[in-house]
Design brief:
The protein is of the alpha/beta class and 230 residues long. Helices cover 36% and strands 17% of the residues. The chain has 8 helices and 8 strands, in the order αβαβαβαβαβαβαβαβ. It has helices at 3-20, 39-47, 58-67, 86-89, 102-111, 135-141, 166-184, 204-209; strands at residues 29-33, 52-55, 74-77, 95-99, 116-121, 151-157, 195-197, 214-217. Strands 7-6-5-4-3-2-1-8 form an 8-stranded parallel sheet. The radius of gyration is 17 Å and the shape is globular. The N and C termini lie close together (10 Å).
Length: 230
Amino acid sequence: MTIAENVKRIKDNVENAINLSDFPNQEVSILAVTKYGDANLARQIVQAGIQNIAENRTELFLDKYNQLKDLDLTWHLIGSLQRRKVKEVINCVDYFHALDSLKLAQEIEKRADHKIKCFLQVNISGEESKHGFTKTELMDILSEFAQFTKIEIVGLMTMAPLEATEEECASIFHDLKQVQVEISEMNLENVPCTELSMGMSRDYQIAIKEGATFVRIGHDFLRDVDLSKE
């Protein structure tokens, strides 16, 4: 198996999941989470047809960004971001998938030189160990985003617990879709909230069936790949 063959398999899986969903006209962006390899590996994934690169740590993000500047890519920061590190990375970011506090939003507003497309992180499953807003907290702070000029809330993000069954994953993703639709219909300034970032290598097909428009895939690009030959 090669990286190119895995990219084709993943794209086929995405297309099949869309066709099986209640959202057959939705567009789904595949994010390559490249923490499992170096910039050369990320380049091979791009050459195989993926244009969205994602990292969850600032240092890894900047390393890949600097080594792949010659490519026309969309860059996603998907992990938690400490306020003190915002200035180091934010102006390299197109999409930020883990906005979990107003204080962080204020720091992004202060440091960004372009509008950052952000997903609000929602702890829809109620896990104590997870970052993110509860639904109640989310509804209470939405109006605050009208004040920002460098942040646009394009959607919501969540992750299902690692131990969740397929049925539990589907329920979590379904619930977030309901919240996303509710917020989108409020027509709030700076909060179009039309997108859903949910689903990883183990559950992205379930997430797509429940309305995901951005899925984060890492090790599945490397399934059965002999890296010594790549």
